[in-house]
Amino acid sequence: MRTDGRTGMRRLVRTVVAALGVAAALAGGTTAAQAAATTATPQAAPTAGLTRYTDDYTVQHPYDLPTSARFSISDGVYNTWILKGDKPHTPTSNTGPRTEMRWKTNWTSGEHMWEADVLIDPGTEHTCIMQIKSNTAGEAIYVQVQNGGDIYHGSHALVARDMWGKWFHLTADYNPSTGAAHIWINNSLAFTTHYADPSGTEWYFKNGVYNLTGNRSETHFKNIRFWHG
């Protein structure tokens, strides 16, 4: 796997700093476990070394309803919801219901990052709230809520537990050039994966609510920001 030069340097710096911290702590009589606990924080911000950019979006929603029936903005908060029995976003789609913000920037190489403050309403179940998606239908990141408020990548990779009903900060990135993808919860790295990028693929961000097994899924977003390497 190829390694992005900037990402590799960031990891090297973190490793060196941690090693120096452990050595200094041990010299002062601290146990290795205590030293590890001391040097575990603070982590570098996920956005360190990246450049912020702006983006615009369209809203995908049940095709037989107006946008306002499933999407609203209030005091800087983007509110997205779907109900049991909702239609897909087009009459010919075989997918489940959704209300998603589809961000317009497409990219083919280099690290790109999405971040936002997120609130998931209780009852939101088996619902995707954020994707890093390709134009060939694959997803490098697929953030899904299931099992009573736990967050997964896909259906099986647990990322965080008990996230219903409280604001938290969600960050995700993908670099098609290296295949590296990550999820951070409250700026702490929670999940890492590798997704091979097919030639010619374009990538983009989506957030909102997609699919449900309950009667209603609703998620709120604010302070949405975008970064690239």
UniProtKB/TrEMBL annotation:
Kindly state which keywords UniProt assigns to this record, in alphabetical order: Signal
InterPro entries this protein is in? Alginate_lyase_2, ConA-like_dom_sf
Instruction: Say which domain of life the source belongs to.
Output: Bacteria
Position of the signal peptide: 1-35
Task: Please tell me whether the keyword Signal is annotated for this protein.
Answer: yes
Instruction: Report domain Alginate lyase positions.
Output: 57-225
Pfam families listed in its UniProt record: Alginate_lyase2
Would I find Mitochondrion among this entry's keywords? no
Q: PANTHER family per the record?
A: BINDING PROTEIN, PUTATIVE, EXPRESSED-RELATED, OS12G0171100 PROTEIN
Q: What is this protein called?
A: Alginate lyase 2 domain-containing protein
Source species of the chain: Gandjariella thermophila
